[in-house]
Design brief:
The protein has four domains: 112 residues, Butyryl-Coa Dehydrogenase, subunit A, domain 1; 96 residues, Beta Barrel (Butyryl-CoA Dehydrogenase, subunit A, domain 2), CATH 2.40.110.10; 134 residues, Butyryl-CoA Dehydrogenase, subunit A, domain 3; 141 residues, no CATH class. The chain has 13 helices and nine strands. It is globular and about 70 Å long. Helix content is 47%, strand content 11%. The relative contact order is 0.08. The structure holds flavin-adenine dinucleotide. Flavin-adenine dinucleotide (FAD) binds next to strand 1 and helix 10. GO terms for molecular function: acyl-CoA dehydrogenase activity; flavin adenine dinucleotide binding.
Length: 510
């Protein structure tokens, strides 16, 4: 019997989001226990419509890319682990059912998620294969009117808790990967060990043994060769780091300012110290950069479409957003002094903020690997362009062209000189910063989508200066790798023209 339509599904978007934002105080990271969220807690969020933007209208949802982004951003400001929680269920699980599920599967899944406090997870990683998914050992076979899946997976978010899974498995003979929905109550997905993670404790992790059968119509329609569909699935979650970073860093920016304004030192406060103000500003500028990445995700991408062609942007987003989160979490903890090293400190959230942010550079593809992908994509397009100057190519490469005028005073001429593997990783990191400058440049030309996301015009130039400074440092690191790992230095290797990059006319807005 189908359920009545949820009245939240028909609210105006602003009203829906304002209601959600105004009702999640109890989930604040300073208050919510750092343990897997209770079903009662999840029920409250489901009643606020947390999943509705990811559920198609035909199944009683709100079907909105923009709201999916906003719910994650808003949640991450309150509580980063809960932003991650929301992302996994909506962007990784529900999005793939909506895009590739059979009608009967959609009906079953969406009816469950629209009305009940249920959880969906994604099972890709195995003890023997994380970065190299192609080596996965979990297999699927035809088994009469079903598929049988056997193997071991680990580090899945919601290992013990998820009611639904999307499982990736390999055919033992054909080089083919399949993606299968599985309802946990059908049996065969068993958590044999619970992992004690350092952070993100509102989600549980563990080691899982799989020996299960799924009906034929639970197989998702994914037809790319090799791991092409896994890459597309991960594009969406990598993009979502912009939403998490934007919410999280806005919170850290506010918290760090409050901290230094209230902490008494001598006759004044920490805020009177120049270096402290500089660090607070660095956190602020990292927020401004992630806010720009987020605006790109919300306004220029769409979770309901195939994201393969946005691979470059999604990789750059994940690398940059996660590295800025980690850097700022450390700075914020430093500003909180000894109390920042204390879980449950009365005046700051620094201990958990750092533990939660730490893993973002590791999961969802480790950043070092993603940097490599990013660099290879760039080098391939550069070679295809027939151009000789990487800088000239940057000025024509869709995702980076907006950054061009900010780069003309950095010597990037050797970027494409067939770098060694270690340099390829650093090149990827440089490209992520260039992408960030482009996103900032674009954001500076457009009005903020809402008052919550507005930043001062003057902040754009400062945030661009921070990223330029990082590029200069990375260009120097490019040289350093050769000395440390013993490879031959390239003749005339990268060297910035100027040793200091200032935010004067060189980073002026177009
Ligand atoms: C908190 C958390 C949540 C997770 N959630 C999920 C989930 O929900 N579902 C799921 O399926 N998986 C999940 N994972 C697994 C996660 O995606 C993997 O841990 C990650 O992809 C890295 O794989 P690995 O652990 O096997 O590391 P490895 O592949 O062993 O890599 C270890 C390190 O080696 C280096 N390295 C590896 N390859 C390269 C390269 N090409 N270039 C340079 N350096 C390299 C990097 O420094 C890397 O960090 C989660 C992990 C954690 C910690």
């Amino acid at each position: 019997m189908s359920m009545p339509r949820n009245p939240l599904a028909d609210l105006d978007s602003t009203e829906f989001l304002d209601n959600f934002r105004g009702s999640i105080d109890a989930f604040d990271s300073a208050r919510l226990p750092h343990e897997p969220l209770s079903r009662e807690g999840l029920r409250k969020l489901v009643e606020l419509g947390i999943y509705l933007p990811a559920i198609p209208r035909a199944y009683g949802g709100r079907e909105s890319h923009r709201e999916m982004c906003e719910i994650i951003e808003i949640m991450s400001e309150r509580n980063l682990p809960m932003g991650m929680y929301t992302m996994i269920v909506t962007v990784l699980f529900l999005r793939n059912v909506a895009r590739s599920g059979d009608e009967a599967l959609k009906e079953e899944v969406f009816d469950d998620f629209a009305h009940h406090p249920v959880i969906g997870g994604l099972a890709f990683t195995e003890p023997g294969s994380g970065s190299n998914l192609a080596r996965m050992q979990t297999t699927y076979h035809d088994d009469g009117d079903a598929y049988r899946i056997t193997g071991t997976k680990h580090w899945q978010a919601f290992s013990e808790q998820a009611d639904w899974w999307i499982i990736c498995a390999k055919h033992p003979e054909r080089k083919e990967f399949g993606y299968f929905a599985h309802r946990r109550s059908d049996g065969g997905f068993v958590t044999t060990e619970v992992y004690d993670s350092l952070g993100l404790k509102n989600l549980g992790y563990g080691l899982n043994t799989l020996d299960l059968r799924v009906p034929r119509h639970y197989r998702l329609t994914k037809t790319r060769e090799g791991l092409g569909d896994a890459a597309e699935i991960l594009c969406a979650s990598r993009f979502s780091k912009a939403a998490m970073a934007s919410g999280f860093l806005r919170r850290l920016s506010t918290e760090s300012l409050r901290q230094v304004n209230t902490r008494k030192i001598g006759d004044g406060t920490l805020h009177d110290i120049g270096y402290v103000r500089y660090k607070v500003s660095r956190i602020r500028q990292n927020y401004v950069a992630c806010n720009a990445l987020y605006r790109h995700l919300m306004l220029a991408e769409d979770y309901s479409t195939d994201l393969e062609n946005s691979m470059f942007a999604s990789l750059a987003t994940k690398v940059l957003a996660s590295e800025l989160m980690l850097e700022s979490a450390l700075d914020y903890q430093q500003l909180c002094g000894g109390e920042g090293y204390r879980k449950g400190a009365p005046d700051n959230i620094a201990a958990h903020a750092l533990l939660d942010a730490r893993v973002y550079t590791v999961f969802d593809g480790t950043n070092d690997l993603l940097c490599q992908h990013l660099a290879h994509l760039f080098l391939r397009h550069f070679q295809e362009s027939g151009l000789r100057s990487p800088l000239e190519f940057l000025g024509r490469f869709g995702y980076l062209e907006d950054a061009f005028f900010h780069l003309t005073d950095i010597n990037l001429s050797h970027l494409a000189d067939a770098p060694s593997q270690d340099r390829i990783v650093i090149l990827g990191r440089i490209l992520s910063r260039i992408y960030g400058i482009g996103a900032l440049q674009k954001a500076s030309r457009t009005a903020a989508p809402s008052a919550r996301l507005a930043v001062d015009d003057a902040d754009y130039a400062k945030a661009i200066a921070v990223l330029k400074n990082e590029i200069v440092g990375l260009v120097n690191e490019y040289e350093l790798t050769a000395r440390l790992v013993g490879a031959q230095a390239l003749p005339g290797a990268l060297r910035p023209h100027g040793s200091v990059v200032t935010f004067d006319s060189k980073v002026g807005m177009r």
